[in-house]
Specification:
Layout (H helix, E strand, L loop, with lengths): L6 E5 L5 H8 L2 H7 L7 H4 L4 E8 L2 E10 L16 E7 L9 H15 L4 E4 L6 H9 L3 E2 L4 E3 L2 E3 L2 E4 L1
Parallel strand pairs: 4-5
Antiparallel strand pairs: 1-2, 2-3, 3-4, 5-9, 6-9, 7-8
């Protein structure tokens, strides 16, 4: 696996929309995220969600977001302790798939979140997204319940603790 410190995270801006649209046009992203407009300025200003462009050696290749699980009424992770965070991400550039970058950059962001006080990190892949589930399990995430229907779609709840 790649060492986590090789990855840089910078905030998404409206200047990144074309890049995100390009990434979302790839079938491996569209399958789980859709191809619609990725972000508006209002979404980027939402303090509940931190959105990141992930780069390796100065080359952007992935999108990641982390969010407060207590920011929405009736969120499926709202039962978690204060300061818990949820994560979602995808590798946008297909040349970076299958090389260990997914678990490595996720591990880097997880370390930052734990260092900043998150007691639990949650994620919720689609139950049929075995590639994502396998990556999360490599990072210590455990399935904590059966698949469930949420307003964001069908999810498999998974948690990693500090």
């Amino acid at each position: 696996m790649m060492t986590p410190n090789k990855y840089a995270f910078r905030r998404v801006t409206m200047d990144d929309v074309d890049l995100l649209l390009e990434w979302r046009s790839h079938s491996h992203v569209r399958e789980w995220w859709g191809a619609e407009e990725p972000h508006t300025q209002e979404q980027l200003n939402d303090p509940r969600v931190s959105r990141w462009i992930v780069s390796l050696d100065g080359c952007p290749f992935a999108y990641m977001q982390d969010y407060t699980v207590h920011g929405w009424r009736a969120h499926h992770f709202a039962y978690l302790p204060d300061h818990s965070r949820g994560i979602d991400q995808y590798i946008g550039d297909p040349e970076y798939i299958g090389l260990g970058h997914g678990p490595a950059f996720i591990a880097a962001r997880m370390q930052d979140l734990f260092n900043n006080g998150a007691p639990v990190i949650a994620t919720d892949p689609h139950p049929e997204n075995q590639r994502a589930i396998n990556a999360y399990q490599k990072l210590g995430f455990e399935v904590v319940g059966p698949p469930e229907e949420t307003r964001w779609g069908v999810i498999l709840p998974m948690l990693a603790r500090r």
